[in-house]
UniProtKB/TrEMBL annotation:
Galactosyltransferase C-terminal domain location: 139-216
Subcellular localization(s) per the UniProt record: Membrane
One example of a Gene Ontology biological process annotation: carbohydrate metabolic process
Protein name as catalogued: Uncharacterized protein
GO MF annotation, one: glycosyltransferase activity
This protein's pathway: Protein modification; protein glycosylation
Signal peptide: none
UniProt source species: Branchiostoma floridae
Length: 283
């Protein structure tokens, strides 16, 4: 396929007014294979990309996201799959880093990908020239979000929508498993990149624009500052390589038309005990 796909439109209409019925969205994408897979029919894609979306209790957002992302990925001529990793259970806090690590591990059991896009469900791309194709360097894609007046809040930000090769993600040992709620997991990932001397690249903010769907603020992570202080000491043994120590269970992996759904039960007593130990050691 060409480096610059010919069907890119530039600015994309973003409709936040009404969540579409998922069945109607499916009818618009009959060429998508069950599980959320698609590849260009007339050329060989340059990149094979998995889009990982951690998710909980935002079904309306998910429907809007799926309706929005599939046409863009097709126009970018990617060989791609969309994976929604949903947190189950009564645990009140959302464990994004843990879900990303579980999703990454489960996806590679059945398919190989060149790179992975780590994508918040509430962010919608406004310009399809911001390509989700693989890069030789870790890439921060959501540079300009409407909530922040289309400016980068701080230089060390590496969250929202990011792209990493499979090998880079493994080198970084994935995300930390210890961050819950809002705050910390993305900053910890930036520190992992810094410690491994991996340079972050960003597309120009004129194309790296996103709208954020409105939602209630997630609870703050009470341990985030203490955890960040110990990031350099932990990243070698907190992430992909200690998932087996975490209190989680993959309940099911089910292929719907527009995405593969990975249901993860999270019981976090062991994780929270580790957080308290880390906090006490930094006081």
């Amino acid at each position: 396929c060409p480096v610059d796909p010919p069907n890119l439109t530039g600015p994309v209409n973003v409709n936040l007014q009404e969540a579409p019925v998922l069945g109607d969205v499916s009818m618009d994408h009959l060429d998508v294979t069950f599980g959320g897979y698609w590849r260009p029919p007339n050329c060989t894609a340059r990149h094979k990309v998995a889009v990982l979306v951690p998710y909980r209790d935002r079904r309306e957002h998910l429907h809007i996201f799926l309706n929005h992302i599939h046409p863009i990925l097709k126009r970018q001529l990617l060989d791609y799959g969309v994976y929604v990793i949903e947190q189950y259970g009564d645990e009140p806090m959302f464990w994004k880093g843990l879900l990303y690590n579980v999703g990454f591990t489960e996806v590679l059991k059945n398919r190989s990908y060149d790179c992975f896009v780590f994508h918040d469900v509430d962010l919608l791309l406004e310009d399809d020239r911001n390509k989700y194709s693989c890069s030789s360097s870790p890439r921060h894609l959501s540079v300009a979000i409407d909530k922040f007046n289309y400016t980068l809040p701080y230089k060390q930000l590496f969250g929202g929508v990011t792209l990493l090769s499979a090998s880079h993600y493994q080198t970084l040992n994935g995300y930390s498993n210890l961050y819950c709620g809002w705050g910390g997991a993305d900053d910890d990932m930036y520190l992992r990149l810094f410690h491994k001397k991996l340079k972050i690249t960003r597309p120009d903010k004129t194309v790296a624009r996103y709208k954020m769907m409105r939602h209630d603020q997630t609870k703050l992570n009470p341990y985030r500052f203490s955890l960040l202080k110990t990031s350099q000491d932990r990243y070698g043994h907190d992430g992909l390589n200690n998932l087996h120590d975490m209190d989680y269970q993959v309940v099911s992996v089910h292929q719907y038309h527009l995405y593969t759904h990975i249901a993860v039960f999270v019981a976090t007593r062991k994780i929270q005990a580790t957080n308290r130990l880390v906090t006490n050691s930094t006081d």
